[in-house]
């Protein structure tokens, strides 16, 4: 195998590797209740998952966005593990890709420290080569988090795997093929608008595209 052969696979985290939306939404809504503010519906919050936290709060309560972000960041680290679990088959797919010689990274909108804590708590830390959060640079759909992840892996990228159009557009901007899963945030129809290379209900098809490296 040539040392210049691209081996990097990037994965979004929430809604892609881990079914974490219930804990995220609970923490998001906690701030409204805590401060006595009218809360949006679960469906309204779910539609914005994947955007930066402050942008999400600004959508619903612009004058309270900073205060609500503080409430979320106090609540979520204490409650992120209550209902969150890896999606079925995720551990097996990651393990298989590692065994086939690929380098695996998370590329998430979460802050780096929280993302690493979360990955470890979900039992996925040993299956990933790097966890890249979004710290001090543009969020998806900008490709910056993917570029940082691949730099840390020390290899070129092949696929970006995600559950939102933001993930897919970031992957496309980074020059990667894109794989969309429908078990997360965005429905099949919305994901299709970003024209991913694969649009699937789970991660199984990814293994078809990534045979063992020799």
UniProtKB/TrEMBL annotation:
Pfam families for this protein: HAD_2
A GO CC annotation given for this chain: cytosol
Keywords: Hydrolase
SUPFAM superfamilies for this protein: HAD-like
Reaction equations catalysed: 2-phosphoglycolate + H2O = glycolate + phosphate
Gene Ontology molecular function terms on file: phosphoglycolate phosphatase activity
Source taxon at top rank: Bacteria
UniProt signal peptide: none
GO terms classed as biological process: DNA repair
Enzyme Commission number(s): 3.1.3.18
UniProt similarity note: Belongs to the HAD-like hydrolase superfamily. CbbY/CbbZ/Gph/YieH family.
Annotated protein name in UniProt: phosphoglycolate phosphatase
Gene source species: Corallococcus exiguus
């Amino acid at each position: 195998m040539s040392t210049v052969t691209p081996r990097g696979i990037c994965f979004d985290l929430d809604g892609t590797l881990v079914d974490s939306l219930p804990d995220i939404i609970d923490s998001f809504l906690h701030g409204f209740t805590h401060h006595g503010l009218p809360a949006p519906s679960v469906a309204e919050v779910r539609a914005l998952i994947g955007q930066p936290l402050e942008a999400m709060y600004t959508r619903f309560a612009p004058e309270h966005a900073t205060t609500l972000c503080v409430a979320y960041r106090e609540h979520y680290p204490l409650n992120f593990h209550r209902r969150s679990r890896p999606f079925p088959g995720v551990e097996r797919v990651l393990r298989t890709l590692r065994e086939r010689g690929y380098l695996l990274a998370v590329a998430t909108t979460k802050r780096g420290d929280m993302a690493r804590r979360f990955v470890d708590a979900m039992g996925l830390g040993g299956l990933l080569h790097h966890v890249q959060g979004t710290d001090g640079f543009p969020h998806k759909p900008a490709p910056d988090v993917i570029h940082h992840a691949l730099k840390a892996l020390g290899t070129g990228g092949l696929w970006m795997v995600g559950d939102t159009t933001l993930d897919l557009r970031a992957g496309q901007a980074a020059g990667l093929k894109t794989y969309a899963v429908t078990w997360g945030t965005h429905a099949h129809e919305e994901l299709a608008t970003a024209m991913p290379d694969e649009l699937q209900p789970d991660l199984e098809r990814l293994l078809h595209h990534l045979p063992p490296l020799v």
